[in-house]
Amino acid sequence: MPRTGFPVMMPVYAKSGITFERGEGVYLYDNKGQRYLDFVGGIAVTGLGHCHPYVVKALKEQADKVWILSNSHTSPPTDRLAERLIDLTFAETVFFQNSGVEAWECGVKTVRKYFSSIGQPQRYRIITFKGCFHGRTLAAIAASKTDKMVKGFGPMVDGFDQVAWGNLNEVRAAITEQTAAIHIEPVIGEGGMKPADPEFLRALRAACDEFGLLLYFDEIQCGMGRTGKLFAHEWAGVTPDVMCIAKALGNGFPIGACLATSKAAQGMTVGTHGSTYGGNPLATAVGNAVLDIMTQPGFLDRVIRKGDYLWQKLDDLVKRHPKIFIEHRGKGLMQGICCAAAISNEDFIKALRAEKLMTVAAGDNMFRLLPPLIVTESEIDEAIAIIDRVTAKMVAA
Questions:
Q1: Which of 77, 366, 385, 392 could form a disulfide with 284 if both were Cys (CB 3.0 to 4.6 A apart)?
Q2: pTM
Q3: Domain ends where: 294, 327, 347?
């Protein structure tokens, strides 16, 4: 077909103009041989850094065995990963998908099917929170209700009632006879790196128990060690009924999972859900390798220490540059800085990229720092020095 000049890939991303050819640890290398410090990691995906040798080895070994099976059959790595996730969490059952939003949709279906299975199909609505981000399917954007995501994609999928972040009174007022679940990210990522107060999460659990609802957590970004616990909700000492995870579970290989209690999943019987690629042996072999490393004694303790170190460094930056920065938020190795109104976060990110530091935008005019969990203090210092240098140039201008 003749070329029309339209981009060969749909132009839904603002491309940086950089072509990366390879990665190693916390660094990316472009086609000109230039090295960049990667504090994006595919947006919290490469928790163990690029091309971790142990993970690469697991992928290569499985590639010589079998790649894909019909999910009518079982495979050792898939069964093992499910069993390990159950042993490590509240869950009693798992369904694997290929991405975060697929795992999220599986969770929504699990919630709805539960109430249908107990004779209450009228209870299908889910309470969500302003600033949340759950993906870009039609249902996920209806849950988030962000203007830039929903414009032009109407009519919106029904079933999601949004309330203010952290407002328990609004949550309780939104509960009706049609409500099925309360759904929250324990740490909001895309919406501005906001950790939920542990008391608030505990209050949501109590409200679900009081009204007979399911509590559904989205730990796609904040899970898999990102905050220093394997899952962020562990800091509050509460457990959900359903949880979706993805991103760092595969360290870059596509995989997601929906975890649930046996009660919540009782409606998910034969034929109610499926996936062609979900839970394939390649993906689950990688997931097992990731868990091998993340569950090693001391691994998460080191994440906590490095998160504290990053917090101190960023807090100092904000205090020293009050004309450029107004706030610092986050938890663990999931942090960000809000730029002053006169400074565009996108412009600041471009300036950092020109100095070979990769960051990513978030809500509230923020840039996010999501280094791999294996980052060292010296690499954090390297990032801070770049941010400091760019900030000083802006102050001087």
A1: 77
A2: 0.96
A3: 294
